[in-house]
Design brief:
Keywords: Membrane, Transmembrane, Transmembrane helix
Protein name: Zinc ribbon domain-containing protein
Transmembrane segments: 348-369
Number of strands: 14
Distance between the termini: 79 Å
Number of helices: 5
């Protein structure tokens, strides 16, 4: 196979471990339901999320521009930039539960306007119920002084920014290709006190060097544009149903909080390239000839890049217990949940102690029964 041009070291990226893939972006049209904010297609007779009749569904008409309906705040603890409706008075950061939030002017920064948005399909009541069911699971190990009512009150529905990229990967690869062949060998072994002769089939591998080129377009991986939501946490509540994306309009945010992106596009694209490089490696490995391979090396150049800034619906609950931050997330479109909860190590220790004690008791009973025989 012909060799590719020399690829500079700057164009090479290294793979990461994550394996979360989102659907392709196909943005349809629709208007948000004023009841819950879920996008409703023109041909739908009812809202797919709350069931409101489509006859009463009209776009929310803001007074003035959409930007006039919100105030911008920045958390000085985690760096999140939050876009709140003017009628909201709760200024606690939904990401880190900090009260150190200050207002700033949108004129102070040059912000790119979002291109796509997905409306909330999960209602606040449903999200809170999901949290209560999740936190009560294995409740015996939960600290007894955790005040669930006050914690649940901190649940917030937030539109969070994500960067989406499409790009072409062009790769040159080398590998050793292994082809199996089989031989029969004779051996002796001891059976029933006698030496016997047997035969068995042995698999051998013959290795051949091979190289080639590969190219493919990649898209659909969403990178968190929020410093308050790490990529690992964002991946936990994926995937989103991206064909439901709508062209962004300010009225989609009516009644909801939204975060301005705090991770720039140039930083996000490096994360995305790592994921696409991992996929490129997997795709090359999947079509290699032979029975097996080893020492696969892939050099990849990315080009023809395009990007989209999307706002996606997430319910976020952050709270502190004994000076440690805990977080619970709900995908506002699909209802998928993820989170971490505090545990009572005293109760866990008591359970372990009880288990050990039960094992010792059983052992003693078995010993007594054996002695009585």
């Amino acid at each position: 196979m012909s060799s590719a041009e020399t690829i500079s070291h700057e164009d090479l990226v290294q793979p990461i471990v994550d394996d979360v893939v989102d659907a392709e972006v196909v943005p349809p049209s629709g208007k948000p339901c004023p009841n819950c904010g879920c996008p409703v297609e023109p041909q739908d007779k009812f809202c797919p999320a709350c069931g409101a009749p489509s006859e009463v569904i009209e776009p929310i008409k803001p007074q003035g521009s959409g930007d006039d309906q919100h105030k911008l705040f920045q958390c000085n603890s985690c760096g999140a930039k939050i876009n709140l409706s003017v009628d909201q008075r709760a200024f606690v950061c939904p990401f880190c539960d900090s009260n150190y939030v200050v207002e700033y002017s949108p004129d102070a920064v040059d912000r790119q306007r979002p291109e796509f948005v997905i409306g909330f399909s999960v209602t606040p009541e449903q999200a809170e119920e999901k949290f209560r069911a999740w936190i009560k699971d294995n409740k015996w190990f939960r600290p007894g002084d955790l005040k669930l009512a006050k914690v649940a009150e901190k649940m917030r529905g937030v539109y969070l920014p994500f960067w989406g990229f499409t790009m072409l990967a062009e790769s040159r690869w080398t590998a050793s290709i292994g082809e199996y062949w089989y031989r029969t060998e004779t051996y002796t072994t001891m059976e029933n006190g006698k030496m016997v002769t047997k035969t068995r089939q042995v698999t051998e591998t013959e290795w051949w060097p091979l190289s080639g080129e590969h190219h493919r377009y990649y898209s659909g991986y969403l990178v968190s544009a929020s410093k308050g939501l790490q990529q690992t946490d964002a991946d936990r509540i994926k995937p989103f149903n991206l064909p439901a994306l709508k062209r962004y309009e300010p009225f989609y945010l009516a009644g909801w909080s939204a975060e301005e992106y705090s991770i720039e596009k140039d930083d996000a694209v490096q994360i995305c390239r790592q994921e696409f490089y991992r996929r490129e490696q997997a795709n090359i490995a999947s079509f290699l000839p032979g029975n097996t391979h080893r020492n696969l090396e892939v050099e990849t150049r990315f080009s023809r890049q395009s990007s989209d800034l999307c706002l996606l619906p997430i319910y976020l609950l952050s709270y502190r217990y004994k000076d440690k931050l805990y977080r619970f997330l709900v995908n506002g479109q699909t209802g998928k949940i993820a989170g971490d909860k505090p545990l009572s190590w005293q109760r866990i220790g008591a359970a372990i102690g009880a288990g050990v004690g039960l094992v010792i008791l059983v052992a003693i009973l078995i010993l007594i029964l054996n002695m009585m025989r």
